[in-house]
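hey m, so remember when u said the tokens were messed up on ur end? i reran from scratch. heres the input so u can diff it against urs
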Amino acid sequence: MSEHGYETGRLDLPFVGISTFGKRAYVADWSDISADVAILGAPFDFGTQWRSGARFGPRAVREASTLFSFGHAGAYDHEDDATYLGGDVRIVDMGDADIVHTDTAKSHANIETGVRAARAAGALPVVIGGDHSINIPCINAFDGSDPFHILQIDAHLDFVDERHGVRHGHGNPMRRAAEKSWVSGMTQVGIRNVSSTAKEGYADARRMGSTILSVRQARELGSAGIIDTIPPGAPVYVTIDIDAFCPSIAPGTGTPSHGGFLYYDVLEMLQELSRRHDVIGIDLVEVAPDYDQSGTTAILAAQILLNFLGFIFHARKTGRATA
């Protein structure tokens, strides 16, 4: 044993063992979850309109997350002089919701069941997609909750009402969310280029309570200005589409859109959010690993999620700013 007592037990390097998220414990029984954070995979991509492959996102992000799994006392950040995700933050992996091929309704219902189980256990649900349609069952699982705001970080508005009878694809989730009585408004950030929503959809989004910001507008505002668009004290659900990032750092997605965010653009936004608001749920979607042989996209996704969780629980522990 070393002087710090770190040499006991297995070394358990990232490439050893089973790839749960962050190599945390796997909980197969959803009626017996005891944790602060519950990770759920939603490997569903039948909602895509072009390149499929996000069904493999949860496995890729879990594999990538093992890179950040070793360490004995949380993650020390020398810039913040803070230790994030220490042993007091209990994270478990629920595995994946069952996906029934070609059956969107049943697959979405199974995802919703998983999110409801996490919430019933008092855990923060973190859902890894899958295409962005998986946000629909995630938000459905919050019925009966106090009203909350949604922060969407994305290249596309995803506010289509209906197209050729399709209402639950990956171009529809923010419209479906805006219709819920428990969603009080949205901040939609990173929206740019040829989008998934026609002009009237933008008007509808604003009419239904959305603030829409491009990458350039978001950079001009800065992280504090972006979070200022969220009503003070509002709980916030965060949905992150990996195509919000520039494909130069996140090519592994079905609908890449150039001109996107870089890492610290999003990280600082999430840190500011965590300081000022209670985060009640997270999903991260559209990682399609087969379009990125380097694995960088999945690593980015895992790194963002782990850092974000660190910010959330550090704020809960130390007290949240009200500005």
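this time it looks ok to me. The radius of gyration is 19 Å. if urs says something different then somethings off w ur setup not the seq
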